Amino acid sequence: MINLSVLVEDFEKRFGKNHRAFFAPGRINLIGEHTDYNGGYVFPGAIEQGITAVIQSNGTHLVNLYAHDLGIGCTFDIRDKELHADSNFRYVFGVIRELDKRRVELDGFDAVYGGDVPLGAGMSSSAALECCFAIALCNIFHCKLSNSIDLARVGQAAEHNYVGVKCGIMDQFASIFGRANALVRYDCHTEEYEYFPWNPDGYRLVLVNSCVKHTLVGSPYNDRRASCERVAKTAKVSSLRECTWDKLEAVHHKLTDEDYRRARYVLGELDRVLEVSAALEQGDYETVGRQMYLTHEGLSRDYEVSCEELDFLVSEAKRLGVTGSRLMGGGFGGCTINLVQDEIYDRFTGEVQKSYHAKFHRSCQLIPVVISDGARHIDVQ
Ligand code: GLA
Q1: Catalytic status, residue 302
Q2: Which of 33, 171, 176, 223 most suits a substitution to test ligand 1, by most atoms within 8 Å of the C-beta?
Q3: Is 242 helix (H, G, I), strand (E, B) or coil?
């Protein structure tokens, strides 16, 4: 979490002494990638990095936002239907509009926000921002959505309608529902979820950020989703979650090779999440790791959302004896997630940095994972 006193000081300089603070985290995902918008399972956890907002209502109709990390601000009327400001503010603007559509009564407010989730690393900095403002605004204006999943949906809808990424619900779900020391398996179809304690004796999770910036805006992310929807339609099912291997084979001849491979990846991934759930219950981390490598293979060859740098990081992890490794999140850059035995942790982290630099003439960034609580109010001392 970013140092709160820095944001508070900035807020007080701009807007005065009366304020509250809220935090929403980014996320990791153990397994279940590109399954959320196919009605499948995901297996995320909230992390300690996230977005913090210092905020207060101001008794006017004006919204004054200041993005501390970017050093830019903007002002608009809470009733504005379009944003006439830097596009970085569309996430917050989108949350306001989506709350308004749900008849949440908002008014003017002042906010300074910042965070420590690396941008474009596949760790859901945008969901953290959306969820932070969704809970902050509901709190300062004393309104409640009917349940917490609706808060996540506000963030997702902001992303769809004001950013243009047709994302699933995983990132916002994890940011709101995360719990310290537990991963949560979420069924995006039935909306049921279950917490799995995460204390893997003898293993650690570490992210390796390729520092290849991924942006899902204008990326082929939406194309992947469209492929999946085409296959579901051809197979006459409501989502790929309902599509069995037999049903997929039955329509194989009607699909382009590309759409077929996209669906083949998704069906495989849906199976893998269940295998990993069973393995976790047995404390069988070797199986978890094997499935992670298989996910990467599918994401790289069939779903085609990897890149040279991510493939290299995963192959290095394999060479160095890491239990499991794969690209994490939407892809096209960002991080790998690695399940590493304690004994080889130092060797892996040291060597991967060296070999990455030798190959690409730039550094990768190591980010140890601490599974933490979801979005919340924080005390300002
Ligand atoms: C991004 C999206 C999520 C999910 C992942 C891939 O993070 O925001 O909804 O689809 O990619 O699993």
Answers
A1: no
A2: 171
A3: helix
Distance 115 CA to ligand 1 centre (A): 20
Mean pLDDT of 349-377: 97
Instruction: Tell me the H-state helices in the chain.
Output: 4-15, 90-101, 125-140, 148-158, 170-177, 221-234, 245-251, 257-281, 285-301, 308-319, 342-360
Tens digits of residue pLDDT in 316-356: 999 999 999 999 999 999 999 999 999 999 999 999 999 99
Sign for the pseudo-dihedral over CA of 99, 101, 102, 106: positive
Alpha carbon dihedral 250, 242, 327, 175, in 10-degree steps, equals 170
Cβ neighbors of 372 (< 8 A, separation 6 or more) are 25, 46, 47, 48, 178, 180
Rounded to whole angstroms, the Cα distance separating 315 from 304 reads 16
- Ligand 1 centroid to Cα of residue 357, in Å, is 28
Continuous segment of H or E residues that includes residue 114: strand 109-115
